[in-house]
Each structure stands twice: as structure tokens, then as C-alpha cells.
Specification:
Layout: H1 5-22, H2 54-78, H3 82-97
Helix pairs in contact: 1-2, 2-3
Length: 109
């Protein structure tokens, strides 16, 4: 089953908003290297998640929110399934111009 892009982004934003609303209790954040969360050679914590700085985390959440706003604007301009319709229109133009198949532009080795 394929999840539509809009639903995936909306779910990611909801999870991010919940994470911001809940927050961490005072003293829950530990100094790097303290406790049992030791990093492996690739900078990942023992649980397998990549550790990122608070600034990087904020930038990632900001990117998700910007994408959601873009999706909303896109829906207002083109309708509920506007993106898919536009992709189909571009594909039909590419086919009519004979540039739809990218393999013809790829050098053979």
C-alpha cells in the first residue's frame, strides 16, 4: 500500500508538534556521553538513532513545516489532486516532444 505524500507529511508534522508540546521534563536531557547512551563509531546512540544538535533538530522541523505550508498552497492553487494532475500534464508534454524517456539521453558504456 502506498501512502500519499500529503498524509505522510501531515503525520510527521503532527508527531513533531506533539514532541514540541510535550517536551522533556527538567533534568531529562543529559550531557553527551553521560549515562548508558554510548555512541558507536558512526555517531549513533545505542538505540540506533542519530544524535543531532538542538539547532539541527529545529531546522529539520522547520523544513517539515515549510513543506506542509507548500502542500497547502499547492492544494489551494491546483485542487486536492492537483500535483498528480500537473505531473501527468508535464509527462504528456514530454511525450509529445519526445523527451519522456531519459534512457535516450544516458550514455551507454
Amino acid at each position: 500500500m502506498r501512502v500519499p505524500r500529503r498524509e505522510l507529511l501531515a503525520a510527521a508534522a503532527s508527531l513533531g508538534a506533539v514532541g514540541l508540546a510535550v517536551g522533556l521534563p527538567h533534568g531529562a536531557a543529559k550531557e553527551p556521553g553521560a549515562g548508558s547512551s554510548e555512541k558507536d563509531a558512526k555517531g549513533k546512540a545505542a538505540g540506533g538513532e542519530e544524535e543531532v544538535s538542538p539547532a539541527e533538530d529545529l531546522m529539520r522541523e522547520h523544513g517539515v513545516l515549510r513543506r506542509i505550508l507548500l502542500e497547502k498552497k499547492e492544494q489551494q492553487l491546483f485542487g486536492a489532486d492537483g500535483f498528480e494532475k500537473m505531473v501527468d500534464r508535464v509527462a504528456s508534454v514530454e511525450k509529445s516532444l519526445g523527451i519522456y524517456d531519459l534512457a535516450q539521453f544516458t550514455p551507454r558504456s
